[in-house]
Structure formats: structure tokens, C-alpha cells
Hints:
- The protein is of the alpha+beta class.
- The chain has a domain at 41-143 and 155-167: Immunoglobulin-like.
- 16% of the residues lie in helices and 36% in strands.
- It has 2 helices and 6 strands.
- It has helices spanning 2-26, 163-166, and strands at residues 33-44, 62-73, 79-89, 102-109, 112-123, 131-140.
- It has a 6-stranded antiparallel sheet.
- The chain is elongated, with a radius of gyration of 23 Å.
- The chain starts with a helix and ends in a 17-residue tail after the last helix.
- The model is unreliable at 169-183 (pLDDT under 50).
Amino acid sequence: MIMNFLHSTLIKAVFASLLMVFSLALCGQALAANLSLSQLSIDACEPTDPGAQPSLARPVGSSCYVLSGEVTNPGKSAVIDSDVFAQILDPSGEPVLPNRARVGSIGDVQPGKSFFALRLAIPLGTPGPLQVKGAKAKGFKAPVRTRAGEEDELLPLEQAIDPGALWGSSGELLSLDKTMGQL
Length: 183
């Protein structure tokens, strides 16, 4: 009787182990893909940028900044729902967004190199220039969240930024002293 109990327990343990290994092999598709970031720049939004919200100017609140750069997808397929993680620091090295590692989403990233830009809400009165430390991006092979439809209204910080307006055709960052109309 004890032998039957041990034998059935052993069979159950082996079956459970095989099931777990098989499940891990199938969920490998859900693992995040790492993307590399380079040529990072963080600058204040133009006054005409919807994220600047000039109609909401007030003594306390936040300022609009644009984090832009180049993202490289080394894979052979697109990476979906990519997020950027970084520390944004003031000149003294203090984080301006404490307890916040994810700074935004850059959406889908095709294989190869491409440019990205995303808006950040930085506390008003934060001294500049700001620095970016430990920046990285991750995404997935399939969508992981519901996407906004064409009819959905987006908040100003969620609206797309045209990275081509910030980056020249040679890949050099253009001066943000110029207005978008001068580019």
C-alpha cells in the first residue's frame, strides 16, 4: 500500500513537472524583447505643442518636455507596445520623477533603427538642464493592452509627436530653438 502511494505520488510529480516545462516553453512568446536606445535628448516642448497646455498655465503643476532618440530593434519582427524606462535627473543628480521607472510608451518598433519621441510631465520649477540615465526600452511580440481607436480622444501628453520634426534626415538632432514651422 505504501509502495502504491509512493508510485502514484511520483507519477503525479513527474506529470506536474512535465506540464510546467511545457507551459514555460509555450509562454516564451510572452517574454519582453529588449530594445537599445541611443542619441537621447530631453528638451522643453515648444509653446505650440499640445502637451505644453498654455491655456492651463498656473503657478504649480508641470512642464512639458520631449524625450527623443534612436531606438534599435535587433529582431526580425516588430516589437509591439514598447515602453521606455529611465531615470530623469536634475543638474544635482536628484531624480525629478521619483518612484517612476517607466517614463512612457513609444508604441510599435519595426526591425532596425528608428527615431522616437515621447512627452514627459516634469514638475514645474525643476531646474535644468535635465539628464537621462539608465534608459532602456522593452516590448512584446503581440499586443498586451487595448489600443486607442481613431475616434478616441487622447490627452495632450498621449498625442503623437513626429520624431521627423525633431531629427534631420541625417539623423542629427535639430535645434529646438527653432519653431516647428522653421524646420
